[in-house]
Amino acid sequence: MSHGQTTLSFRENSVRALGDDALRAAMKQAADTFGTRRADAFAPVTAVEALRDRASAIREEVLKDLPGYVERFAASAARAGATVHRAKNATAAREIIARILSDRGAKRIVKGKSMVSEEVDLNAHLEAAGMEVVETDLGEYIIQMEGEAPSHIIVPAIHKNRRQVGKLFAERLGVPYSEDPQVLTKIARKALREKFLTADAGISGANFAAADTGSIVLFTNEGNGRMVTTVPPLHVAILSIEKMIPSLADLPDFIRLLPRSATGQPITSYVSVITGPRKPGDATGAKELHIVLLDNGRTEILAGESRDILKCIRCGACMNVCPVYRTVGGHSYGWTYPGPMGLILTALLTGMAKSHPVVDASTLCGACVEVCPVRVPLVPLILQLRRRKVREGFSGPMEKRGMALFGKVAASPFLFALGQRLAALFWPVVRVLGGKDVAGRLPAPARVPFRRKAS
Amino acid sequence: MRVLLFGTCLVDTFFPEVGEATVRLLRRFGATPVFPKGQTCCGQPAFNAGHEADARTAAAHFLSVFDGDDPIVTPSGSCAAMVKHHYPDLFRGDPRMLAKAERAGERIHELTQFLVHVARAHEAGLRGKGRITYHSSCHLTRSLGVREEPLLLLRSMKGATFVPMPDAGRCCGFGGTFMAKLPEISCALAEEKAVSIEATGADTVTGCDSGCLMNIADAMKRRGTAVRVAHLAQLLAEGL
Amino acid sequence: MSGADLAAHFLENAAKAAAGTHRVSGVEGLQGAIARIVPPDVPVHCPGVTEVEKAVAGLFADRRAEYAAAAVTVEEVFGAVAETGSLVCASEGGRAVQAGLLPSHHVAIVRRDHIFATLNDLFSAVASAPPTNLTLVTGPSRTADIELTLAIGVHGPEKLDVIVV
Known about the structure:
The complex is a heterotrimer. By secondary structure, chain B is of the alpha/beta class.
């Protein structure tokens, strides 16, 4: 999704990423920082496991009747004065939102960060319709200027260093070069203030949606999310259907878990709970609120064996600890969502034909499972997808034959011992056949294998 | 006490010295190790790559070779985890095999689990030498929950200095089939691990999984690092 | 936890989030704090609707009805949560929540008896009938989008002062 990188070319993407020193340095620094911050944030929290259990249970409860919760949410939101739209897929979402905006002659749109809007490729569609779409989250603002896709679901420009951002701002905004993040932030504040105040509409995502009251909840730090949802007269919120929680009374445990898991903060600067548009007597809120509920394959996932991925609350903790993600960065994955939750969702939403290589992008180390605040069974889900990949015929003929041979050899001590002898005898040949990347990294087999020594 | 020794395919083929060390340790601590000759591989490579049927074939063979009630001991965290956690999944549809799989899961011990909880080897005056650092393998710690046992053993070795490794718990990049499918990333991770090891100033790096140690040894060879790579079984046996 | 402890707990957590914290009693105490916090001669937005706001509105030489034109907003907010050191800003009663968002300095006054101990206390109170906008505000605005380096003051206020009265 960035510079023509696709999911199918994951290995090539990753090789290129490995050669990008600036990226490697940025990712290493990020991994170290995330690790420390998360640990520090959870240290004073008593009963973390109970907290995770509760949050996990709430999410599982919702998945037991997701359609029911979605219906309830839609009805509640409508009662609160919002207009609710159901978007079956990406095309529908784009068209619904474009129509809402063009019907009202909206030209300047300010946008808060929304991964779902990336998933449906919303910006390009609106821009093609002649609208100005301004990303206002600092990280998104940076990559929009650069013409790139986000490489992390929480910190979109994590792959960039301060010098790159300084150079970008100097070139595009005509400001003096600075690589001081404080200075660069103030530059963005100034540049975007005017956009907020003159925008015709604001587009946001939502972290959660409370079914009982039709409220949407946004966790933000910069203030742009609040601006986007309350300053322009029109607010369009797009969220995928698995964001449901039963009630606002369920929110506290997620407030305790999400910021700590995502950025190592005890709480984000702002947690906004928006229930309907401005009503008579209100002085806060958009005059019109449209909520677009996106399916785009979730109903199908819900009906299948991988439904537990829908528990994900998009905190990013899994990618922060993933050895693969932190080495090659998000763009290598070729689509919107990277890292462990990303490769699972990508395979499920885009199909095995388009994305089977990312299913291999895991060492199954389990670091992600350790940190997931809602206990998504990430490693079992990845294994499941690998079995599916094999079943659907995407594992390659050589591998299939190789594994079938493996099975036979593993079931026959005679073949196993024979295999050992042949490997030892013909090791130089095996090395050449197996390639320097793989066989070249193995030591030569022992002259006398253990089975001949063991008595 | 009779124990069945599962050497593992890697030890059997590439690191027989680990198997020999395991035998010496088991004998030293009062066990009679028996090596069922029909053993081959636990089936992880096929299982991890999604080839369930082929994994099941290997697993069924394992269960038949290791049938019975004797404890099974293996110098590999990932193999013990495979048997304990994944064998039952492989035989969900077959009650007879499922029962065998669950029983095998109860009987199997990773070596340091056996040495600490059964043999209490960490109280037996173990000896060692030099500065040793330790890589904590992912399946051993996260899948099997074995975190303290290797450290207890290491710290008890009189004459050796244990030097903790920064980011000891970070994956070395072996990941079974991962090292073959995405070798470039695998090498990059092994390289990072090598750097962590070098930072400790240790003369030896140890661990409980031969796959990890093999991957680490390769990275250090490329870097020309003169640090010995040895399975914990070897270090403990050398001190006997 | 007693009311006094709750206030202390709230202010302690607010301070950890880089808010300026102040504890006063009575009108004089409040006016004194305002005089210390708000520079003279800056354009100030103060709604002057609640009793607390009325007590301080007269202190400002340059009062603005338009919060977008103000450098500071001084207002009373709905409440606070001690557990997280957060202000609770609500649109109840015709409040403009964004008045505390646009200016670069937000001075928020909270009554001591409007402090909730925990997030659960707050949300069980509002869960059945939330206002149009309820926002938890914890410290000034911030980002770590560049090299994960913390920068305070992005699009929302660059400075937050909290006064418990």
